[in-house]
What we know:
Order of helices and strands: H
Helix content: 25-40%
Amino acid sequence: MPEVTWEVSGGGEQSPPTKKKMVFLTPIKITDNMDDNQKTFFTNYNNMQKELIKAGLMESK
Length: 61
């Protein structure tokens, strides 16, 4: 196999990427009149929202 040589041809200093946080939405209240699929979906949604806030990827309010 031939030897591969890498060469940097130019470019300046790069600025760090900007991270825009997602907008906070109120967690969805799980109610008794929801079917099982809706309850599962909204439970997962609320849990994902908590993780995004914890990771600093979503505004907290």
